[in-house]
Specification:
Layout (H helix, E strand, L loop, with lengths): L2 E3 L2 H12 L4 E4 L4 E6 L3 H11 L8 E3 L16 H10 L4 E6 L6 H4 L4 E5 L4 H10 L3 E2 L14 H8 L5 E4 L10 E4 L6 E4 L5 H8 L27 E3 L13 E5 L5 H4 L4 E4 L6 H16 L5 E4 L8 H12 L5
Helix pairs in contact: 1-5
The structure holds threonylcarbamoyladenylate and magnesium ion.
Threonylcarbamoyladenylate binds next to strand 5, strand 6 and strand 10.
């Protein structure tokens, strides 16, 4: 079993594996990442193989701090980057900036930009320090499937194919980083995530929100993503009872009416007290549990479309899309 507790010794072991071109799963404050040395193209190729991820889907590069960013991008002195870094790093914000040639093409999927973030999770930070290289890391799930928020999720999905899993417990935010594209004149919100867009706009001014990007350069933007294997339907309002004899699952934001809940084979409540932060942290775990419960379908109730709710609704909307990839 390549799964070990994220002790200091094991972080050092993981760093050694990364320096030798291996792949290591590790916790971040958002979800578990599947990391490789970002400057080693061959090592990064293994990430794509393990995830069965298409090569048009670029990776996020994780670094220790703003001081590491100048080596990867020509935008090191972009005042917008400096303002965002001061406000949100370390933390769950990713910026897309023009890349330098040192970044391998496989990392950026041939794009002229690179996505960079500074994680705040102590294990991720310790690993970056010990490895001494930037770490390219997508979420540690098979392509298109639900993102992992525990070492269990990683082990069940790709455990046999990674060199090591650092177990640092459940990830605190539970949804991925917010991605802002700074490569053009106006900043663009590419993916809603753990930092609410409103907070970024308070620092940067209005963000452009693309309706749909063509061609798809960011798979976070593919319709079908974050998807359980069980068909999922995102409702407009509260769920009614399941059909008699049906083995359905219910993903509710707050506790459902007992009369409704009792008609479902399995019920997961994101946040009994209606807290979006708690709901985000539990989202992928609840989806994993429902997907493993042998259900014929899952119905999901919407969460309020504000703050973190926007990221949650984004993931649920993609979870319901028919798989096309
Ligand atoms: O919270 C997170 O961001 C997690 C943890 C592990 O850091 N990582 C993560 O990675 O969510 P991944 O690969 O699952 O999602 C990265 C997203 C993808 O949608 C990818 O297309 C986009 O970032 N991306 C990466 N580089 C990009 C670029 N140069 N331009 C546009 N989008 C980019
Ligand atoms: Mg992902």
């Amino acid at each position: 079993m390549p799964r070990v507790p994220a002790s200091q010794e094991n972080v050092a072991l993981a760093a050694e594996i990364l320096r030798r071109g291996g792949v290591v799963a590790f916790p971040t404050e958002t979800v578990y990442g599947l990391g490789a040395d970002a400057l080693n193209a061959e090592a990064c190729a293994r990430i794509f193989a393990v995830k069965r991820r298409p090569h048009f889907d670029p990776l996020i590069v994780h670094v220790r701090g703003i001081g590491d960013v100048g080596a990867l991008t020509t935008a090191g002195d972009d005042p917008r980057l400096e303002r965002l870094a001061a406000a949100f790093w370390p933390g769950p914000l990713t910026v897309v900036v023009p890349r330098r040639d040192i970044v391998p093409g496989i990392v950026t999927a041939g794009l002229e930009t690179v996505a960079v973030r500074v994680p705040s999770h102590p294990v991720a930070r310790a690993l970056l320090e010990a490895a001494g290289c930037p770490i390219a890391a997508p979420s540690a799930n098979p392509f298109g499937y639900i993102s992992p928020t525990t070492a269990d999720h990683v082990e069940q999905q790709i455990g046999a194919e990674v060199d090591l899993i650092l177990d640092g417990g459940a990830t605190p935010h539970g949804v991925e980083s917010t991605i802002v594209d700074l490569s053009g004149a106006a900043p663009v919100l590419l993916r809603p995530g753990a930092v609410e867009a409103e907070r970024i706009e308070a620092v940067l001014g209005l963000l452009v929100r693309p309706v749909r990007k063509e061609p798809v350069t960011a798979p976070g933007q593919l319709d079908s993503h974050y998807a359980p294997r069980t068909p999922l339907e995102l409702l407009d309002g509260r769920a009614g009872p399941a059909a008699p004899g049906e083995r359905a699952g219910l993903l509710a934001f707050r506790a459902p009416e007992p009369g409704v809940a009792s008609t479902y084979a399995r019920v997961e409540v994101l946040s009994p007290r209606g807290d979006l932060r708690e709901a985000a942290a539990r989202l992928f775990s609840c989806l994993h549990d429902l997907d493993g419960a042998g259900l014929s379908r899952i119905v999901a109730e919407p969460v309020p479309s504000e703050g973190l709710g926007v990221a949650i609704l984004d993931r649920l909307g993609r979870a319901q899309a028919k798989r096309r990839v």
